[in-house]
Amino acid sequence: MYEDIRSNKIRSALIVSIFIVMITLIVYYICMAFDLGIMSIIIALIFSCVSAFASYYNSDKIVLAMSKARPATHEENQKLVNILDALVVSSGLSSTPKLYIVEDAQPNAFATGRDPEHSVICVTTGLLEKLDYYELEGVIGHELAHIANYDIRLSAVVTVMVRFRRYAF
């Protein structure tokens, strides 16, 4: 397990580094087209570092906005909240992930965030309608395993960086 966590952290750092280099090069060539001289590389580095920093620290919010998720409430989703609370106690995680719902008939769930302290589990309404208590418990347990292994950091970083590149250029 510790090898998986280490591997995911290294991959995430590599992806962020590649993102910074790519954005730096793109912005550098744009600045050179405007004949900004030596300022081009400074502008490019500042832009790429700020965008990578903002993307990394807001990755969970960006992914939730892309999926149009809303926070789960204890009143509406009591069964789901109870499952999550019980599994967090037994998982050994130091904090409880936030719980979100996506209005979608397809049964699906995912976890996102940059680390276990800033993690989110999101489930669709289709999943809530189709699964019984124990099946839902299995799905939430699976998502908690992604959080514990830092799979969420890697997937959130990749998702946000790819979307950033797609919309920015």
What would you say this structure looks like, in words?
It is a single chain. With 169 residues, the chain is α+β, with helices and mostly antiparallel strands. Helix content is 67%, strand content 11%. It is built from seven helices and four strands; from the N terminus they run αααβαβββααα. The protein has helices spanning 2-33, 39-57, 59-67, 78-91, 125-130, 133-148, 151-168, and strands at 70-71, 98-102, 109-113, 119-124. A four-stranded mixed β-sheet has the order 1-2-4-3, with helices on both faces. The chain is elongated, with a radius of gyration of 19 Å. The mean pLDDT is 87.
Key terms:
single chain; alpha+beta; 169 residues
Give the overall shape: elongated
Number of strands: 4
Structural class: alpha+beta
* Helicity level: 55-70%
How far apart are the termini?
Answer: 38 Å
User: Count of helices?
Assistant: 7
Largest sheet: 4 strands, mixed
User: Strand-and-helix sequence, N→C?
Assistant: HHHEHEEEHHH
Strand order of the largest sheet: 1-2-4-3
Low-confidence stretches: none
* CA gyration radius, whole angstroms: 19 Å
Strand content: 5-15%
What secondary-structure arrangement, pairings included, does this model have?
Layout: H1 2-33, H2 39-57, H3 59-67, E1 70-71, H4 78-91, E2 98-102, E3 109-113, E4 119-124, H5 125-130, H6 133-148, H7 151-168
Parallel strand pairs: 2-4
Antiparallel strand pairs: 1-2, 3-4
Helix pairs in contact: 1-2, 1-7, 3-7, 4-6
